[in-house]
Design a protein that fits this description.
Layout: H1 7-16, H2 19-24, E1 30-32, E2 35-38, E3 50-53, E4 58-61, E5 67-68, H3 70-78, H4 82-92, H5 99-108, H6 111-133, H7 138-146, H8 151-156, E6 160-161, H9 166-175, H10 180-185, E7 190-191, E8 197-198, E9 204-210, E10 216-223, E11 231-233, H11 249-259, E12 261-265, H12 268-276, E13 282-284, H13 292-299, E14 304-307, H14 313-328, E15 332-335, H15 344-361, E16 365-366, H16 367-376, H17 384-398, H18 404-417, H19 422-455, H20 459-473, H21 475-484, H22 492-506, H23 513-516, H24 523-533, H25 543-555, H26 559-575, H27 579-597
Parallel strand pairs: 12-13, 12-14, 14-15
Antiparallel strand pairs: 1-2, 2-3, 3-4, 4-5, 6-9, 7-8, 9-10, 10-11, 15-16
Length: 602
């Protein structure tokens, strides 16, 4: 799996990056006992089942079964290749991969993607330089200054300007040895029907869009003339997927995690202006409705999101859809209301940070309060039939609330508003919840069945799992088992695991699960090894306990295997000069051999 990266270098990178620190950047972890726990980033859950152990440098989710070391975590979470995970962690810890390794990887993997990334980084600097220094950028600078941006803010966000002349950018890229056709193919540049390659953002103010690792993967362009469309994004590509990115996420992440809150804006300028006013935990979707993936991305870092969209009709509609996505992801959401149809950008410039925080953010509505107000806009409650439709719809939403106290609160509000009986409203809420509950039963029943199945494993199966756990923890136990059992385990996957483990120890490696799993290609087997390594073990296991595990394993295999084990015990007794025990074991061997011969006499 390591490919051309030296094994020693891989270990240096792994040891330089504590898995708790790396996982902690993506998952909110809390220490309980010797391990850290949080919500699994790989599947939706409300109760933490994701565990990280600092001692063994591994993670494991008891819900979905995923597990591994720090490299595996990034590969699963970010879709990295193994090389990319090593490279990312090496850079993070201030280490440099040898040029020979880097160049060989670039030749073999993702050559065009790497060239695109390099081109995006180059263009980020070029566009910003053009804005600051180039002739012809005066109108762009005037536009940004009129929007209230300072030079410092423009620099922080690398806001730029793409020159009007269509060949300026492409000529410069060619001089820097970029392949224009490759860049057109991957969406960095555009191409006309007759094959001419052009800068798609020419004449526009350009906003670099970075992934959450801080790498530019696309641009957003805003016209400063009457050109259509007003806003233009890079096209969808392998690197640039709008539904999986949030603008400014890389810079806002630390403050979001610190406050346990994110502010979700609609556009770049709202985020940038808020940041300029000292509100640095804002992000924005990229011209599309919030997606499930974006909501899950926020869920990794915060428990609460304030939706702060424009105050016009379109903004309210978009805020409702975003609130629904956030609720689905298990996030608490509040929805800010901007008066007079303004947008956050205008409000901040007109009234300042203090007013924005006090009157907009702090007074933002809860999810259900906003939903009830939003629903009411859809009906004419002065008309009886329409009013009843609204009440029915409101009850349906109240029924989805998880906390009884919240259901009671909003049921009473609804009853008081329309002079209805609270008991009647709560009765309707209860009926609606009965219709919701069956959807949850299959998942609960499946989990219960899985737990029962785990309890029904035969003794030898559990003995093998426990013994392998000790072998992962202690190389001397593995060495003894190599001579006593070899690969004679009853479960096929256990046979494969111990075979790998024997070879690992024979190569002189230490008892290090995080290092061992790096040599396992099969993902299911890797997850199983991590699961076994996470079992609770006694630091001072007795010889008697180990013998019990071996006995249970060999009993399943029949008398021949047991005789082999007894011979081993007899030899050990003789080495220990316990001749009485050696004689007793010898008598047992004779009895078993006699029993094996009996069927042959028939």
């Amino acid at each position: 799996m390591a490919g051309q990266i030296p094994e020693q270098l891989i270990e240096e990178v792994r040891k330089a990056n504590d898995i708790v620190d790396v996982v902690g950047e993506h998952v909110s972890l809390k220490k309980k006992g010797r391990n850290y726990f949080g919500l699994c980033p790989f599947h939706g859950e409300n109760t933490p089942s994701f565990s990280v152990t600092q001692e063994k440098q591994i993670f494991h989710c008891f819900g979905c079964g995923k597990g591994g070391n720090v490299f595996n975590f990034l590969m699963e979470l970010e879709g990295f290749s193994f090389y990319q995970a090593v490279e990312y962690l090496a850079n993070k810890s201030g280490m440099a991969l040898p040029e020979s390794v880097s160049s060989q990887h670039t030749q073999q993997n993702n050559r065009m993607d790497q060239e695109s990334l390099n081109a995006y980084e180059f263009l980020t600097m070029f566009y910003h330089h053009s804005l600051v220094h180039a002739n012809g950028a005066e109108e762009a600078k005037q536009y940004l200054t009129a929007r209230g941006l300072t030079e410092e803010t423009m620099k922080k966000f690398n806001v730029g300007f793409a020159p009007y002349k269509s060949d300026v950018t492409t000529t410069l890229l060619e001089k820097k040895s970029f392949h224009l056709n490759h860049l057109a193919h991957t969406g960095v540049l555009s191409q006309t029907e007759d094959g001419k390659v052009l800068d798609r953002f020419r004449g526009r103010v350009v906003f670099p869009i970075r992934n959450h690792l801080g790498k530019t993967v696309g641009f957003g362009g805003r016209t400063i003339s009457n050109e259509e469309p007003k806003y233009l994004n890079s096209p969808e590509s392998k690197l640039f997927q709008k539904g999986r990115l949030l603008y400014n996420f890389d810079q806002a992440r630390s403050e979001m995690k610190k406050l346990n809150q994110a502010i979700l804006f609609e556009g770049y300028m709202d985020v940038i202006t808020a940041d300029q006013y000292g509100i640095t935990h804002g992000v924005a979707s990229l011209g599309t409705a919030l997606t499930d993936h974006q909501a899950q991305l926020l869920k990794r870092y915060v428990d609460e999101v304030i939706v702060c969209y424009d105050g016009d009709h379109a903004g309210i509609e978009a805020a409702f859809k975003a609130a629904e996505r956030l609720k689905k992801a298990g996030l608490e959401s509040r929805i800010a209301s901007i008066p007079d149809g303004d947008d956050p950008d205008d409000y901040l410039k007109a009234y300042g940070k203090e007013a924005f925080e006090r009157k907009i953010l702090e007074q933002s509505a809860t999810y259900m309060s906003f939903v009830l107000t939003y629903l009411k806009r859809q009906y004419d409650t002065s008309i009886e039939a329409s009013r009843m439709q609204y009440i029915d719809e409101a009850i349906r939403y109240i029924a989805t609330l998880a906390k009884p106290i919240e259901r009671d609160h909003y049921a009473r509000e609804l009853a008081n508003e329309y002079n209805l009986s609270v008991d009647t409203i709560m009765g309707e809420v209860a009926l609606n919840r009965q219709q919701i509950a069956p959807e949850q039963k299959p998942r609960i029943q499946k989990q219960t069945a899985r737990k029962k199945q785990q309890r029904l494993y035969p003794a030898y199966y559990n003995a093998e799992r426990k013994l392998i756990s000790y072998m992962l923890y202690d190389a001397t136990i593995a060495e003894r088992m190599k001579h006593r059992l070899g690969a004679s385990f009853n479960v096929d996957v256990h046979k494969v695991i111990v075979t790998h483990l024997y070879a690992y120890y024979e190569a002189g490696h230490p008892a290090d699960v995080s290092q061992f799993v790096e040599r396992i290609e099969d993902s299911e087997m890797k997850n199983l090894i991590i699961e076994l390594a996470m079992q609770s073990l006694s630091p001072e296991v007795t010889e008697e306990e180990i013998n019990d595990y071996v006995y249970m394993i060999q009993s399943e295999q029949g008398d021949k295997a047991l005789i082999k084990e007894l011979f081993y015990q007899q030899k050990q007794a003789e080495i220990d000069k316990d001749y009485t025990k050696a004689a007793q074991v010898g008598m047992e061997i004779v009895k078993l051999k006699k029993r094996l011969k009996e069927p042959l006499r028939e």
